[in-house]
Automatic annotation (TrEMBL):
Membrane topology: Multi-pass membrane protein
Gene Ontology CC annotations of this record: plasma membrane
Principal location listed in the UniProt entry: membrane
Transmembrane domains' residue ranges: 30-56, 68-88, 108-127, 188-210, 254-275, 287-311, 323-341, 361-382, 394-419, 449-471
Superkingdom to which the source organism belongs: Bacteria
InterPro entries: Na/H_Antiport_NhaC-like_C
The keyword Membrane belongs to this UniProt entry's keyword annotation: yes
Matching Pfam families: Na_H_antiporter (PF03553)
Name the record gives this protein: Sodium:proton antiporter
Subcellular location: Cell membrane
Organism: Aliidiomarina haloalkalitolerans
Residue stretches making up the Na+/H+ antiporter NhaC-like C-terminal domain: 160-468
Organism ancestry: Bacteria, Pseudomonadati, Pseudomonadota, Gammaproteobacteria, Alteromonadales
Keywords for this protein: Cell membrane, Membrane, Transmembrane, Transmembrane helix
Length: 472
């Protein structure tokens, strides 16, 4: 049935994306996309389509692996709520400022970029760590949360694909091995240097972190953030003068609470990956590892806030509830995005897009077309991993048949998946970047898109040149 849908298989995702961007009603747009997808899948029976939509949403909600996603999403909200409302983050930022570790906006942005590079074990925990650690510093110094969302989104995913000592590497290595490649590991390694989009996106994020370069919608958010920070600093000085304090007294225990909770969150991920993988990090359960790591960090934050700042139990409970409630809309968006991705894959949207390459095309354009087709697939289904699973079985046999370099085609497929994932408002990675930075989701999509498109333009030129070089 799905193979006969053709262009209709793309309609739900594309309409959901357009509606979300134009109206900013992301939840309504995604819900409409899910319902429309099931109506198309079961047409002409609208009743069956509506029943299947409700059942599909329910199955997505109660699926055990997805429950871990809801769990760590709400837990990160609770963690941030405790650290923020109990006061430990205030002491942490003051300590960073007094120690001159991040004395200015450039140092803060570079701090975030380096965190994203260092924590390459799992993209979600990398985004969470870099986002939650940097967010109060950015607010203090006047760097927009949209700039934070861009830096963590454009650092963490590219690093995870370029340093594949993680679940990303294991997943793609398995896909490559299943295509009859003679030496999957070395072929994959050779492809890393040809992943033009990931490399360019990472370097562009470094350039933005160093210079603060803002263009497009990002400029307005940067100006507003600097104005808010200026007013907040003025108000803080007035409060200190009225209280008779020369400077904010730092509680070292509170600072230690923030550091220990965040460091534990990072270190627990490889430990849990090793434990759930029976001694192998690459075979471990990424979602379970992230969930346990964040809950452990939450427990440390709660205990530390009580012991160091004498925070009342009721304040802690209220902070956890408020933090989780604040993050709940993004959890709902993530749920609907996953549900939409599941049904669009069932409709065969990826296979339909891949079938476009069956037409006769100049050989030298194929790497660039693989990149763009992979990007369109990821944009439509909101999943880089789902795109890899669709595009690698197409790209590798195509390269083998034509006698072209397999690593180049693998790199083009992977690079396109990352670009499409960065551009799509229904991508789970994009949603989590918004969550970690505290940015409005559509604002993150709008501000990141110009940077992603610029990196994609350079990547496309790179694949055209590479295709021409191997074809001559």
């Amino acid at each position: 049935m799905s193979s006969e849908l053709g262009w209709l298989s793309l309609l739900p995702s594309l309409l959901a994306i357009v509606f979300a961007i134009l109206t900013r009603r992301v939840i309504l747009a995604l819900l409409g996309g899910v319902v429309l997808a099931y109506l198309i899948l079961f047409m002409p029976s609208a009743v069956s389509g509506l029943y299947a939509a409700v059942a599909g949403l329910g199955e997505t909600l109660i699926k055990p692996s997805n429950q871990l996603i809801w769990g760590f999403t709400l837990a990160i909200g609770a963690l941030f709520g405790v650290l923020e409302r109990a006061g430990t983050f205030k002491h942490f930022v003051a300590a960073l400022e007094r120690k001159q570790i991040v004395p200015n906006r450039r140092r803060a942005r570079m701090f975030t970029w380096m965190l994203g590079v260092v924590v390459f074990i799992e993209s979600n925990v990398s985004i969470m760590t870099a986002g939650t650690t940097s967010r109060p510093v950015y607010d203090k110094l006047g760097v927009s949360r949209q700039k934070l969302a861009y830096i963590i989104d454009s650092t963490c995913a590219p690093v995870c694909i370029l340093i594949p000592l993680n679940a990303w590497g294991a997943f793609n290595l398995g896909l490559i091995g299943n295509q009859g490649v003679e030496d999957p590991l070395m072929t994959f390694v050779y492809s890393l240097g040809l992943n033009f989009y990931a490399i360019i996106a990472l370097l562009m994020a470094l350039f933005v972190a160093w210079t603060g370069w803002a263009f497009g919608p990002m400029k307005a958010f940067e100006a507003a953030a600097q104005e808010r920070a200026r007013k907040a600093e003025l108000n803080a000085r007035v409060e200190q003068i009225e209280a008779g304090q020369s400077e904010f007294p730092i509680n070292r225990g509170a600072v230690a609470t923030v550091i220990i909770s965040l460091v534990t969150m990072v270190l627990m991920v490889p430990v849990m990956l090793w434990y759930t993988g029976d001694g192998s990090i690459v075979r471990g359960s990424g979602m379970q590892s992230v969930f346990v790591a964040i809950v452990t960090a939450l427990v440390i934050a709660v205990i530390g806030s009580i012991l160091t700042l004498k925070a009342p139990i009721m304040l802690i409970i209220d902070s956890m509830a408020r933090g989780a409630w604040k993050i709940l809309p993004l959890a709902v968006i993530l749920w609907l995005a996953i549900a939409l991705g599941d049904v669009t894959r069932a409709m065969g949207s990826g296979e339909y897009l891949a079938g476009i390459l069956n037409e006769t095309l100049p050989m030298w354009t194929l790497p660039a077309l693989i990149f763009l087709l992979s990007a369109l697939t990821a944009f439509a289904i909101g999943s880089s991993w789902g795109t890899f699973a669709i595009m690698l079985p197409l790209a590798i046999p195509l390269a083998m048949t034509l006698g072209l370099p397999i690593p180049l085609f693998i790199a083009a497929a992977l690079a396109g998946g990352i670009f499409g994932d960065h551009s799509s408002p229904i991508s789970d990675t994009t949603i989590i970047a918004s969550l970690a930075s505290g940015s409005d989701h559509i604002d993150h999509v709008r501000t990141q898109l110009p940077y992603a498109l610029l990196a994609a333009l350079f990547a496309t030129i790179g694949y055209l040149v590479a295709g021409w070089l191997v074809a001559i």
